[in-house]
């Protein structure tokens, strides 16, 4: 009897998993026959986010040379390394290009086709362009995966969920705003994937409140400007006349930091140093558990600071006042934030060379402007300074911090359930827009198409309109008939529109206090309320507490998603092999 594996989700995660199955099958599952059923209404490889049917104006936010779907020797995994081309090598692009998402989708399809071709001859892949609705079956027996529009379920020895980003039901605040919009003839666009949002109801010239200043906002900005016929000439934006006026704000009130625009040279910081496997083991061994802010964040902050100052002292010693060996010894011995602050103050003369994570996270805290116009000038100056710094190798400690962020994320996966704040902080510092997008933002601001609202932007619905305000500009208010929530839906189990996840939750799958699906960090098995891993059900992706920075990554950075894919693929193959052996016996 041939074994069956069902993988729900055929985008980058499912594709990466398939690549790892192909790599590990010769060792763990040879010559026994296997049917792999991929369930996804979107095309295999590209999936929903990277599909061809989207605007060619939308870019990736990574250089083409920083995107790979293949493992290398830096990935700590049990399976074999199978190297392959990066996006820029495969496409023949300049490595510093920001490719459009359609091209990335074609790359992902090629990776998928290669993975299928690399499978053993007796392993067959079947794609079902449908949605999975629910999973049934006993813990110790075959699982049944029910598909939309199909009366009979797929029977499976193991099921892996690789769902990627998901739609979500509105939270209580969004539901109230949506209801108010319906009652008063307003437009409320909730969190969504911007490429999927119908923007046609937004009218030319009208003010639009936009809450969110990350990558979803950048997509919105592009589609409502260039997407409506506007164009850039040098540093100027030439409107088409079809653009609305976007009033944008957020919790921080500033856009995500620009992608760094130079390459690493010289010695890398030896990471991990203060937050590695030993520290994670100690946290996991605590009988009473741990608190992220109290117990984990100080270790993370020290790790990021170590990377920053290692680079500053080794590459820019003229900007330091003591010998690095002395500084490193005292830094390692420092136990509190105040001790580190005092040490740095005496060793690094220029405050601009010091790492201040609190100021980075909330740059507008305490900042006040006398007028809306003054704030526009101030925020443009902030963006210009960020662009200058992120493209100047004299500030290469920023790149060292980026490398430390990747290292930290790889360790945090083992802890699980660290909450959404960390993911947002990581994205803000390490996963921001390409520099050219921020230059376009500046041009749009000068043209009056984008206007900045400020930090901790509040939105109220009253008197038949939406109103926005921020303490950054005391007394300023702006009203509009349209409100766009420019951010992705929160990937919580309880509010996911995906019926499969809701059914799993109802069936006893556990969730974290932040609403993420709990999984075993060792191999991705889904945990129940008692902490027991399901023997036949696995899950990978942003809706789990094992979430990673992304399904693909920069070459030679350890790729935590690749490590997860390998561990889950190997666990599933062992499970399938044991099932085949029991049948044979």
TrEMBL record:
Residues annotated as domain FAD-dependent urate hydroxylase HpyO/Asp monooxygenase CreE-like FAD/NAD(P)-binding: 6-165
Domain of life the protein comes from: Bacteria
Region of interest (Disordered), residue spans: 530-562
Name of the protein in its database record: Adenylate cyclase
